[in-house]
Please model this.
Amino acid sequence: MTPRIDLFGIITDDLAASAAFYRRLGLDIPEGAEKEPHVEILLPGGQRLAWDTVDTIRTFLPDWTPSQGGHRLGLAFLCDGPAEVDALWTELTQAGYTGEKAPWDAFWGQRYAIVKDPDGNPVDLFAPLPQVESPS
Model:
């Protein structure tokens, strides 16, 4: 059998805060799940996304410490269009989440923005930019 990606995991200091953030991005995290030490949901396409508290991780890795000096993993959410990127950015930053990069039109043809989840993980918001017809 060939291994295949099945689960993406997030280690969080505050499961309730992380769940609230990702619910704002449309993930269906059951109410009350944030009271558990481990939560996972099934994503469209069959992969799973999971959250574990730091305390849960330390039950099997007692010396675990978070990475320092930058991130190694990010999540990206495809939006319905450039206006939704802007609206989500505004909603999240006005709700108190840290904006790393305000929405901009990226040279690779997408409206793009980066906001940090409660644990400092970058979360990208993006949508394709409308195609501009060149004059003939």
Observations:
- Helices lie at 15-24, 54-60, 82-94.
- The chain has two domains: 1-63, 73-136.
- The chain is about 20% helix and 30% strand.
